[in-house]
Design brief:
The protein is α/β, with parallel strands linked by helices and 448 residues long. It is built from 11 helices and 16 strands. It has helices at 2-13, 26-37, 46-61, 120-125, 149-167, 207-218, 271-289, 311-319, 351-361, 379-383, 414-433, and strands at 65-78, 82-88, 92-94, 96-98, 110-117, 135-138, 172-176, 202-205, 224-229, 232-246, 255-261, 297-303, 325-330, 338-344, 366-367, 388-393. Strands 3-2-9-5-6-7-8-4 form an 8-stranded mixed β-sheet, sandwiched between helices. Helix 7 (271-289) crosses helix 11 (414-433).
Length: 448
């Protein structure tokens, strides 16, 4: 028996099961370097400026043309102290993170009664008297979805909830994190002050803490909480878009605009959001740069200040409104495999779409119906009628990590990242060489 097992063990040790994994490649190297050498990159801060310097040096070293920064100004928000303690009836600490653009409590915090709602609609329906002077808490039941559609459903709680509570006279706003994990790690993200609403303290509880607070409220006793949040707006500062190109042979055929955003929230190191996006698009563009010269020029943009409100995309659209753009696409949904793609072309049943379907199907990417949207950064160009392609990363685990301190390099699967880069490379090679004129679409309704 022993003589049989020893050769078998030796054979197993020589197989790929025990072999070193293949080199992770350029995409992984980019996100590894960005997250290690720069770290978190809050928009408008010194850290984001260091990231732009890093990006310029890296893109030049890779051989891209016309590498430069296009600066723009933006209002900057920074995080302060953030604590929450249930005072009664069951004293205990809660874990939370301020939402971007949150107002502040006094330095010593505030103590107030909590009033809870199971949804944003329930808060909207509540009489102002039930909310005035209290800390509003809204929860939900967000579940993971491959296409990320749950974010569209529940994200409004974060985007608009604090504004609604403020207009009803609330002292502060707490939400269950817009996430699908059950770790004691809160998800930040921007909130907006709509229709002249006054900024109030606003924060997201980690999912376990939100569920704990929900259980405490269910006991039926009045609940008071001491909350301290001391973020602040620090005035107008500079952000910027980092631009690089792969020159084509026919400038008249229009630009192919691609990219991701270089800024991140300040809790993690921005690996999946959106170090992965700039890595995927850069590595794919590099594959075109290193191959036969393409017909169309690729313009790669590492957009600044996406997280606090899409300032980089707006600045790009304003600066380049007079240029012909043949296509736009962005990567801003993590580092997992591409499973589906969609496109909005002037001729939806064109030969180009058929070619994309055939080529992407070879690596397991399925076509999807409906309108493609691009994303926050290329959105302003898409609104003007630029054709757009969506390459959809698998979002099943994305909102476990999104906008948290857990957004770090170890969450990236190099094999899935490599597949995403392959899909982007296939798409780019197809569209930069196609004879399809990629005619513009009519402006979208909210652009008219």
């Amino acid at each position: 028996m022993r003589s049989t097992l020893l050769p078998l063990a030796a054979a197993l040790l020589s197989t790929s099961a025990f072999a070193a994994p293949p080199p992770p490649g350029l995409g992984y190297d980019i996100v590894e370097s960005l997250t290690t050498e720069v770290g978190q990159r809050l928009a408008g801060t010194e850290a984001e400026a260091r990231a732009r310097d890093w990006a310029v040096a890296r893109l030049k070293s890779l051989g891209f043309a016309n590498v430069h920064v296009e600066p723009f100004d933006m209002p900057v928000w920074t995080r302060g102290a953030e604590t929450a303690d249930v005072v009664s009836p069951f004293p205990q600490k809660l874990v939370l993170a301020a939402l971007g653009n949150s107002g502040a409590t006094p330095d010593g915090g505030i103590t107030a009664e909590i009033v809870g709602f199971p949804s944003l609609d329930a808060l909207k329906a509540a009489p102002d008297a039930a909310v005035k002077g209290k800390i509003v808490f809204v929860w939900h039941r967000m579940m993971p979805t491959q296409d990320g559609s749950s974010y569209g459903t529940y994200g409004l709680i974060r985007f608009a909830g604090a504004s609604i509570a403020s207009k009803k006279g609330a002292a502060a706003m707490l939400i269950r994190s817009i996430g699908t994990d059950h770790h004691r790690v809160p998800h930040t993200g921007v909130t907006n002050w709509l229709d002249g609403s006054k900024p109030i303290p606003a924060a997201a509880l980690s999912v376990p803490d939100a569920e704990q607070l929900e259980r405490i409220l269910a006991r039926g006793k009045p609940v008071s909480l001491h909350l301290t949040l001391t973020p602040k707006m620090v005035g107008t500062r500079q952000s910027g878009n980092v631009i690089a190109e792969v020159p084509g042979t026919d400038p008249s055929s229009g630009l192919v605009l691609i990219g991701g955003h270089i800024d991140s929230w300040d809790l993690g190191t921005g690996a999946i959001d959106d170090g992965a996006g700039v890595a995927i698009t850069t590595a794919a563009a590099k594959s075109i740069l290193d191959g036969p010269r393409a017909k169309r020029t690729i313009r790669l943009v590492w957009f600044g200040a996406e997280e606090p409100g899409g300032f980089g995309g707006l600045a790009y659209a304003k600066a380049h409104a007079g240029e012909k753009h043949a296509l736009a696409a962005e990567a801003d949904f993590g580092a997992d495999k591409i499973w589906a793609f969609g496109a909005s072309f002037a001729q939806p049943k064109s030969a180009l779409r058929d070619e994309l379907v055939a080529r992407l199907n070879l690596i397991g990417v399925e076509p999807k119906e409906g309108e493609a949207h691009g994303g926050t950064d290329v959105g302003p160009m898409v609104q003007k009628g630029v054709p757009v392609i969506d390459l959809d990363n698998d979002g099943t685990r994305y909102f476990e990590i999104h906008h948290t301190a857990d957004d770090t390099l170890d969450k990236i699967d190099p094999a899935q990242l490599a597949q995403a880069i392959e899909a982007w490379s296939i798409m780019l090679r197809t569209v930069v060489d196609t004879n399809d004129p990629l005619a513009p679409l009519p402006p979208r309704k909210d652009e008219e």
